[in-house]
Each structure stands twice: as structure tokens, then as C-alpha cells.
Amino acid sequence: MITRHLNALAVQDPILRKNALREILELEKLPYTVQEKSSFNIPLGIKNFLIDPLDDSPSVVLCAHYDAYPGSLGANDNAASVCILIELAKNLRQLGINARLAFFDGEENQQAGSRLYVSKTDSKKITGVINLDVCGYGDSIVFTKKGKLKKTELKSFDDKIFLNKHSANNLKYLLPSDDRSFHRSYPVISLSIVPYWDVQYLRTLATFSGGAFGRAPEFDMIVEQMEISTTMHGGYCDTPEYVDNEAMLKIYNFTLQALL
Questions:
Q1: In a domain, 59, yes or no
Q2: For 211, which of 38, 86, 143, 161 is 20 to 30 Å away at the CA?
Q3: CA-based nearest residue to 189, from 259, 116, 89
């Protein structure tokens, strides 16, 4: 079961969550390094867990944030994605596929962990980024893409036959995540899964623009109507019992086959 580590990761206490992730990586025999930074506005500081590639040649980064919205268990946002990334880390290594993997802290605090990673990583070592966020509830794969994918490991996200096979929806807008830290410098995919009807809501959200006066009130109203919103930021469905193993497997298989 791809959800087997979910309960350990879906806890309110950020210290317990950090410790759980460390223990799981050790249990799964995944060698990791820790990237840390103290911060005056983040009491516990930032702590990213990084799994290095098989060799130091340029490679794609697969990432997910493991922190949660304050007071939330963070099961779908974002422990489900962390569980998927752990499985991908194991199998990519077994298949001999070179990739960097990153479990980011501080996404709920203006993407502090991914911004730290970008500042400390040699840009020539990154060929593209796949960010997983909110990947455990729903039946419809959705993603956004930024940058030129044609000559990278992300080229499958431009392949209509491949996308149609997985019924994956290429959208112009998803709710902000750690992809924001990368999109100015690298090709980036931001990947989620949502209930079918939420796909249309997301298409509508893409038609809004901020402008001088910020988002229109209708924008927030639409976000509140989305079913996926109940699984995020302290929503009543952001608990382990609402996370679906089949939804997670869809994202896992889609991502793995895209890289293969």
C-alpha cells in the first residue's frame, strides 16, 4: 500500500513530522542529506531532506513539501505526495534512473524550503522539476507546465498521446506551490489530482488576473466551492481517512512512466 507511511506523516506537530520523515527514509534505506537554515520568523527554522542522484550529472528534481498548514494534519496537503515521492525514490534507484529528490520544509511559509534549495544548488545540475502537491484525493490528474520541455526528461508532458492515455489535464493554473521557486530558471511541472468537477473550476480560475486591486472576490468564492479545498489548509477532509490509495497510485504511475 502506497499509503503505509501516511499516518506517521500526517501529524500536527511539525517536530514529530520531521522526525517521522527521517525515520521513514532510514527504514526504506534511502540515503539522504539534510539542508538546514535558521530563520527569525520560522521558530524551528527550515530543514529540507535531500536524496542525491546516482551520479552527479545534470538531472531532474522531483519534490514535495512535507510541512503542513498550522493546526492541520496535512494528510492530503501534503503527506500523500511525500508517500508517493518515497516510492518514486526507491524505484528510480532500482531502475538506475538518475534523479534528485527533495522533501521541502516551509512551503506553507512562502516556499521557504524550496527557495533555500534553489539558492544552494548549482543551476547547471538541474534539467527540470516535477513538484507534487495535493496528490491523494480525486480522480483527475491535473498539471501546469512552464518552460521548454522538448529536450528534457519532462518531454512526455508535451506528448498528447501519453497525456490522453492517462487522462491528464494540462491547465494554465493550479494553486501556488513550490513550483514558484523554480519557474524563472527551469522547466517545471506542478502536479496534482482533483475530483472531476474541480477541473472546470481550475479552468475558470485561469481566466482571472490579479491587476492593481488584487484578485476579484469571485476568485476566492470559486476556490471555496472546489471539493479539493476541503482537503487543504485545515479543511475537514485533510485527514488520513480521506486520502485514497488509488488516487496516489495514479500520480505515481503517471510520473514514473513520464520519466521512463
A1: yes
A2: 143
A3: 259
> For residue range 133-156, what is the model confidence (pLDDT) as tens digits?
999 999 999 999 999 998 889 999
- Residues 114, 66, 150, CA angle at the centre, nearest 5°? 50
Side chain identity at residue 73, one-letter code: L
Q: Distances in Å between the alpha carbon of 213 and those of 22, 210, 220, 222, 224?
A: 43, 7, 14, 18, 20
d(CA 11, CA 8): 7
Residues with Cβ within 8 Å of 37's Cβ and at least 6 positions away in sequence, in order, are: 45, 46, 116
Distance from C-alpha of 217 to C-alpha of 221, rounded to nearest angstrom: 7
H or E element at residue 127: strand 126-132
Closest CA to 144 of 152, 126, 127, 132: 132
pTM equals 0.96
User: Looking at the 3D structure of the chain, how many domains does it have?
Assistant: 1
What is the C-alpha separation between 60 and 12, in angstroms, rounded?
Answer: 31
Q: Which residues contact 71 (CB under 8 A, 6 or more apart)?
A: 12, 234
Q: In what order do the strands lie in the sheet with 140-146?
A: 33-39, 42-51, 99-104, 59-65, 126-132, 188-194, 140-146, 169-170
For residue 74, give its domain range.
6-259
